[in-house]
Amino acid sequence: MARHPKLKKLAFVPAFALTLSLAACGDNGSDTDEADDADASAQEVDLVEPGKLTVCTNLPYEPFQFTEDGEVVGFDVDLMDLVADELGVEQEIVDIEFDVIQSGTALNAGQCDVGAAAMTILPEREENLDFSDPYFDEVLGLMVEKGSGVESLDDVREQGLSLGVQAGTTSLDHAEEEGFEPAEFPNSGAQLQALQAGTIDVALQDLPVVENTWLENPDIAEEYELAEVIDLEAQYGFGVQKDGNPELLSVINDVLAEAREDGTYAEIFEKWFGAPPTE
């Protein structure tokens, strides 16, 4: 279990705090009542451990969640920090297998309050989890060795090359739908190591991992390249226990909406992906 301290973001003012500040500056009783109701709503959220928002994730999955200088950071981590701030608690991160998160097992066992692991919203997962509103578009990237002549999954099939994916992910689902029997790895780090060791010939992974992490490394970019971009027309969501924590789900959705409206989401997005989000 790796603990991530609550981040201080001077540019971000939690909605509850903002409402309270406005109420303090005026005599509008309705504003005060609304602030009290919002604060009470936050207090009603059941947490696995009081005073903490316990978040299950799978490391490393840069730039969404990974360890840097002994601290867990990333896009999902920053968004969950906003939720923790709204609740007036700190975020604590639990690193476990992705399959245990997406199946709902970890949440049902009380290991965490929310799953935040670049998790695609899929019908089969919605049977096990309640998802938040979408927060990121799902696109895959195929990484291959430079000079291999591989430009698509069709080329991988025609050349009889071995394909590697991360277990329990949409990369696995897509590969199997395309008729492959890919090698499966517990996380993106193990997948990359297998590619570099020659255990697999090509890797199918979420595009931000390929483009914003793997190929940002000069040594990797010297030997490998992005061959194909595959838009699955799906989106990521945060997951809570199925029918188990509607109050927390409501807070998460409110925080995401507020962050999009006040520009905080765009700031966090550009911080981790190098460019603002497209509408």
TrEMBL record:
One of its GO terms (cellular component) is membrane. CDD domains: PBP2_peptides_like (cd13530). Residues 52-275 form the Ionotropic glutamate receptor C-terminal domain. GO terms for molecular function: ligand-gated monoatomic ion channel activity. It is found in: Cell envelope. Residues 1-26 form the signal peptide. Residues 52-276 form the Solute-binding protein family 3/N-terminal domain. Keywords: Signal. Pfam families: SBP_bac_3. Belongs to the bacterial solute-binding protein 3 family. This is Polar amino acid transport system substrate-binding protein. It comes from Haloechinothrix alba.
